[in-house]
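Quick entry between incubations.
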Amino acid sequence: MPTLDVEHLSVTFGSGSQAVKAVEDVSFVLHPGETLAVVGESGSGKSVTALAIMRLLPQHSSSVGGAIVFDGKDLLRMRRGELREIRGNRIAMVYQDPMTALNPAMTVGAQLVETMRAHGVGTARDRRARAVELLTQVGLPDAPARVEAYPHQLSGGMRQRVMIAMALACGPDVILADEITTALDVTVQAQILELLARLSREHGASVIFITHNLAVVARIGDYVQVMYAGQIVERAATVELLGNPLVPYTLGLLASTPRLDEDRSDRLSTIPGEPPNPRQRPAGCRFASRCRSRHELCDTELPPLIQAPTAAEPHEVRCWGLMPGEGTGWLLDEEKEDAQ
Amino acid sequence: MSSSTIETATSVPSAPRGTGSRSAVLRSIVRNPTAVFGAVVVLVIVLATVFAGPIAPFSPETINLNLAHSAPGHGHLLGTDPQGRDVFSRLLFAGRASLVIGIGAVLVSLVIGIPLGALAGFFGGWLDAIISRVTDVVLSFPIIVLAVVAGAVLGTGVWSLILLLGCILWTTICRLVRSIVITQREADYVMAARSLGASDLRIIVRHILPSTFGVIIVNAVFGVANVILIEASLSFLGLGVRPPTPSWGNMLTDAQSLGVLASQPWIWVPPAAIILLTIVSINFLGDGLQKALDPRLRNR
Amino acid sequence: MTDRTALMDVRDLQVSYRVGQGRRLHAVDGVDLTVAEGEVLCIVGESGSGKSTIGKAVLGLIPASGGAIDFDGIDMTTLRGRALRRLRARMQMIFQDPYASLDPRMTVGEIIAEPLAIHSRGGSVHHRERLLTAMRDVGLMPALVDSYPHELSGGQRQRVGIARALILEPALVVADEPVAALDVSIQAQVVNLLQDLQRSRKLTLIVISHDLAVVRHLADRVAVMYSGRIVEYGDRESIYEHPAHPYTRALLSAAPIPDPAVERERERIVLEGEPPSPFARPDGCRFSSRCPLRAALGNPDICAHEDPRLTPVVERPDHTAACHFIESDRGEAARGRASVHHHPHDQGENRE
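Done. Structure below.
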């Protein structure tokens, strides 16, 4: 049984002409111990998906559709009390900016204890010991002393470790990590990625890792799901997706990312233009206006998410050019010669 | 997860920066009924006092003791005061004095407060220390005592009141401007202007001060209401505008007599009511402006 | 490279701030740099390494507390007021956050033309022409001239910042993390634009970045900073292909590559700990407490007591590194051990 089953999730902010469809018909399953990387640029809906799972979207200005099934129950239909039992306890979130997410007036130890107390984990004495243990586990140097430190006395990397320790405090089934390494330096980023992978292995927790950085995905995800303008456009196992990218957007993204191991080619290849305005998204494929392989059909009809016919493994794509059939599938013939 | 961490996440769609376009500001005011009410009332009062000459049926200073203490009627819309002057006409001309003092004193306070605040905030150091201490000293003077002293030195009247109140009230503006300038001083766009070779003067005038305008406008509007009230109290005590020139405050002086207060409400109710109406309307307008100029409040 | 004229020559630059009561934060602590005319120098390092401080100090935006900065033969640290401002017409800056660095109350046209107004070059007709040319050069549609920054996308805003920096045709441009705040698909557009403009105008460019992949793409020469110092300095290829300093090696190994196959094969050095506090730095090598090479060598005393200077790397012209063990055979051998030792998957191949 999957840990988390997201079905046809959609999120709309505002209403009428000002309505913004932040997430459209997003479905995925997360199995125990799995790490799913969600990749996308700003406005792709990746962070909103995470907030929807946590039920943290502002209630008065957003409407959420679909279902998010966790442990046999739909999170979207839960009452507040039930939700509190799950949030922070069985589904925990780690944020991008630990400085704003941590309480500046409490020591990190007190915050850890508070989290455990709120969810009734352990006795008062246990909690203190467990706080030190957690901080040790996440690799905070000198944890027994640092338990008394305030957030501002720690470096960015240490604060992110504390955030992860807080997420782990109640032994969650799912950890949502939203751009947690973006604000960190590369060497610290490497430390945190290793840590997250190890913890997921040891604790068996599933991880949803949200990032804009395809290169980071190569280190962390079992599966990758690429989002563009509120929709999933490509999904496969990490090795398959990065080794055999098919959808023009993913190809463009990879080609425009300068690589550390490649000498300077004369120019980076680019994706022309900018993502569509979320208030006036096109009727057809969201990427059509920037796509080099677009046909007329792309402007008018939205392609469905289907299994790519050329892939040997599970590999879903949303592109008319990859869909077999009459008037579609023009990318299937040329394979991906020009894109590579 | 403590509740504080959860709250921070809900504020993800952040508000846009800056005050936005003029049309957005205007639209926000028009949609706000109390602000529209305030604006209309203020406009009517301003027009009525500006055109007091043509509108007023009588001269405000012509004494006619035969008609003293007349109740409303007989061509005197709001009756007459103890000197037999037409209350309605006096009300209109008194508005002139009150509004001129209100606006004038605020302008004086802006002229002093903005540059001093900008200098203190931008340069900091000893300059800031001196300016801040001066504002502290000025703020700690009781206005009434100052008014008595100033009245003795400068003489009383509209212009000396404007000067006096302007010289006291600049401190609020100065502190406000200083605090905004301090936050903007280190902003990236100020650093950018500096890297272009812009002089300090240009950076202050062209880049930093415009960011204070929204707050200054709102404060100036509230300031006018505040000055009108102070003027009224000073004039009521005989420290402000001297008769025979009418002001809303000195029109109330007559209410110091118990007989007038008890049995001749037409003499003191109109100036009291118009002061109340003006202050409330200006505050409504100020609130509306504040909401309109702050994008975070605009769509509430 | 070395025979080209130096446009900027920085010697023993020190920048420190007073923080709180009597404490001094030494952001930059003895840096020598030479930037030749028409070259792209990239300064890489992590937060707190002092790289951004150098960028602002060479433009005279923050005062140097020691050392000299020669720009075209003039020592900028001796200039004040008007003379310094006049010099700034020849050196410009591109900022990391294109939104924060544009005045929200000015239109695109006013922002880009502001340098012309400040340095009062030519009449307003001339201004208009220069403005439109500058906009075209960075790929901004002329129709945007009356827009406000909040109406633009991130990429467009950074183009405005670049147009503003280039409108006076400066000799030197400092770009502080010019693409870090942009979306991935927009980053490439801006990197290409910078590269095109640099080449067509023979600009001298100092790029400050934490992104090693972007740096490899843009740089002619690279300076790697750690804890207020340059620890490795030299030709781009030499540094990326043969990094000599253990910190540079760790940095390169930490940066991810979007290819799981390559990632699995790579040597990966995961550093422990944190850089030393900028208030109290150690006497010896600043990297010594975290250095995997030193650990592999059995913690030699010299690292803890003697501060290594930048010294030439053997057989590599124009490549220096600040490490006591870059040249010795012992160092080579130990480096091999160090990387195997820290490899997460045991059969890692050595890069040398």
